[in-house]
């Protein structure tokens, strides 16, 4: 090694990549060689992690591996989650001269199915991010101010801090069907964000912090800007309302940031639905019996 040069970094292992991708809530597939007969490139237990653009570890290379990668990426692109068994006669399906036979288990993980965009890194925004940490959501945290995000935010799973001096550009960068919560330090910025979110027309939900009088003022200006009543009804304001004994919504009496954040997440949970908790039962027993018999 030449003086001053850095040692080459080792490629990320499949188990390191799997842990990181699941922690970050990103789509990926795990391919596992479960059985083999005859001459095969790798042994049962060999694994490989596949994403849209990267591959971690190997099943031995050759056409068989490339077919596995293409199969996994096709399922990722189509959003086909869950497990499947694939049989590879290496001489027939893969055209490899070793001529063995491999059974492969492919598990496709969709990543976080819910995206929560939080605009504002103030007291309530900070508590929202803390409380959302155990949930399997991807959280995009925005603030227009310099150095607004706490140091610990860089270590929270599925959290991305996005400095965003331009509200319209920040909203334009959101994925479709995201849930947005607007609670910045500035009312003019709040209004610009709500305007941009409504203009997109593809948000799953929009929540705005503030009072009824704040929303009445915003609503009047947004109506003057051309939004109809049906569109304006998409905005929940005030956020963090709780149901009383008679079913009516009312604001919590506790106005601390933690209480507001807690009530806001409780209000948001029914809107998210059950996509994150789909009942994936895996392989049918008959498939497993055929595989191991």
Automatic annotation (TrEMBL):
<feature type="domain" description="XdhC Rossmann">
    <location>
        <begin position="116"/>
        <end position="268"/>
    </location>
</feature>
<dbReference type="InterPro" id="IPR036291">
    <property type="entry name" value="NAD(P)-bd_dom_sf"/>
</dbReference>
<dbReference type="Pfam" id="PF02625">
    <property type="entry name" value="XdhC_CoxI"/>
</dbReference>
<dbReference type="Pfam" id="PF13478">
    <property type="entry name" value="XdhC_C"/>
</dbReference>
<dbReference type="InterPro" id="IPR029752">
    <property type="entry name" value="D-isomer_DH_CS1"/>
</dbReference>
<dbReference type="InterPro" id="IPR014308">
    <property type="entry name" value="Xanthine_DH_XdhC"/>
</dbReference>
<feature type="domain" description="XdhC- CoxI">
    <location>
        <begin position="22"/>
        <end position="82"/>
    </location>
</feature>
<protein>
    <submittedName>
        <fullName>Xanthine dehydrogenase accessory protein XdhC</fullName>
    </submittedName>
</protein>
<dbReference type="InterPro" id="IPR052698">
    <property type="entry name" value="MoCofactor_Util/Proc"/>
</dbReference>
<dbReference type="InterPro" id="IPR027051">
    <property type="entry name" value="XdhC_Rossmann_dom"/>
</dbReference>
<dbReference type="InterPro" id="IPR003777">
    <property type="entry name" value="XdhC_CoxI"/>
</dbReference>
